């Protein structure tokens, strides 16, 4: 290749690099996001920028900021540090886009229990929820790998009368996962209820919740009234089971 051609090719590459580096985020995001997702107030480039709001179904986020992470390029991932606000809370962490999947790392998030419950089903609860995700891999926006701890703190049942339910956590450990499901073990931390059970995340956005609940003696009559249709096991624990799809 002659010197002239080398200079031409180099010039083209430099120009393309400049175009990519300064590509407005609006030009890309409006093309690649699904129709069900709307995003407004986009500023900056695909490398570093922000958006005023994002809506995807029941999920709403505001004050979204992203910053490209070059360190993950060698893994063939386009990774970003993201921070955003959700009603009454926040989320921040690393999102890495790879072949066929979205991976999240070192994620911290917090929100009112009622806000998270709203995404699944309205519940008469108040309290604070926090999530720490060491790593998860999402395919079609559903986890196929999950290493995380979910904490529910100072939870109250609001109806029929306000009752303190206490503090709980759900631990998803990759070692507990099976070929058929991701397994989250549920346990009480503090409060008037002895709770044990598990949450299963199944393929095709399915879930199963299986809990065994034993109230303290002074609350037994109250819970007998509230859960009169819920069966008990031989130890007198309520057997609460739910399943469905999200």
Describe the model.
This protein has 246 residues and is α+β, with helices and mostly antiparallel strands. 17% of the residues lie in helices and 55% in strands. The protein has helices at 3-21, 25-32, 113-120, 220-226, and strands at residues 37-40, 43-44, 48-56, 59-69, 78-86, 89-98, 101-112, 125-139, 142-157, 163-172, 182-190, 193-202, 206-215, 238-245. Strand 3 (48-56) and strand 4 (59-69) form a beta hairpin. The radius of gyration is 23 Å and the shape is elongated. 11% of the residues are buried.
Topology:
Layout: H1 3-21, H2 25-32, E1 37-40, E2 43-44, E3 48-56, E4 59-69, E5 78-86, E6 89-98, E7 101-112, H3 113-120, E8 125-139, E9 142-157, E10 163-172, E11 182-190, E12 193-202, E13 206-215, H4 220-226, E14 238-245
Antiparallel strand pairs: 1-3, 2-3, 3-4, 4-5, 5-6, 6-7, 7-8, 8-9, 9-10, 10-11, 11-12, 12-13, 13-14
